[in-house]
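Reviewer comment 2.1 asked that we show a complete input and output for one of the modelled complexes. We chose the S-adenosylmethionine case, as it is the one discussed in the main text.
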Amino acid sequence: MDDQHGHHISYLRVSITDRCNERCAYCMPGELHEWLPREGILTFEETERLIGIAGSLGVSKIRITGGEPLTRRGVLGFLARVPGIPGLDDVGLSTNGTLLARREADGRTTADWIRAAGVRSVNISLDTLDPAFYAQITGRDFHTAVLEGIEAALAAGFSSIKLNAVLMRGRNEDQLVPLIEFAQERNLLLRFIELMPVSTNDVLTEENFLSIGHARRRVEETFGHLIPEPGFRTNGPATYYQIPRRQQRIGFIGAMTNLHFCETCNKLRLTCDGKLRPCLGSALEFDIMQPMREGASDEELRRFFLNVVERKPAQHDFRENYQPGRKMIAIGG
Ligand SMILES: C[S@@+](CC[C@H](N)C(=O)[O-])C[C@H]1O[C@@H](n2cnc3c(N)ncnc32)[C@H](O)[C@@H]1O
Ligand code: SF4
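Response of the prediction step:
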């Protein structure tokens, strides 16, 4: 699928829940979150059908996300079916990592289970190695569980494990180097992510915003000049650098300050309540659940996808003071 701005769409991010066992300050505020009603959420069967439609239109990569996808009941059965959907060659999962070391009924860890199901990669969020700060930012005391989750993912043998850390000025700036060391010791690919205005939250202020440029300079104070690697790309918009005198690269994801951020965008998003979104940073979304539940044929759903791709904007609206109507937790990061 190609849009009007030269984007070739091959990647669908699929949120399967708006629920989460954490309360990250930049994503979901406090305890007053109103969950979507169960009947308003796509069933796994419906989600699989839509992934199949996307697969028939050239989407080859899927990332399952949320909310916290591993909190949804039945998720392991779903994850075991998705890699078999025709057209897909790469299925990944984004998780906060808190549940990866959990033991399933057969004694294997959730991470082992997911790997055996055919999920190729996991992205795990970790903003700090400081347990007290972790609890402060996520609202939960799960730091040890995440570290165990990372070890479980390593033991499970995924082809790719990435660590994602959201940058917060004056809050986790002193964690950049420890996170780099942590990633190197485990041979994990670490990426630093700029805060995006995707929550109606007070954390998302100028004061808390740390640009990737600033973060890079902080890292360079310790490691020296980072060596750009323009030729290295993963599936997303990160730019990568090599750390001098080390076999380690790190990534920076700068939706706010990287003016080329949207040029290589290859993504569509499916929210857990059945909306197709052509761009995370735009209020545009299209309800595909309703026509599907009213009996739309596969061909009609395919046309729906193509129409949404037609509407994909050239770039996101974050820099034009986009005020999100939905929080990240509901869109699926
Ligand atoms: C919404 S979460 C969903 C998956 C899973 N619960 C997790 O935390 O990885 C996906 C990613 O979005 C990031 N995220 C959430 N809110 C954000 C914000 N306001 N700005 C930048 N990244 C954000 C999280 O740090 C996480 O890496
Ligand atoms: S970033 Fe992930 S772990 Fe944190 S509240 Fe959002 S969905 Fe939950």
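The radius of gyration is 19 Å. We note this here for comparison with the apo prediction described in Section 3.2.
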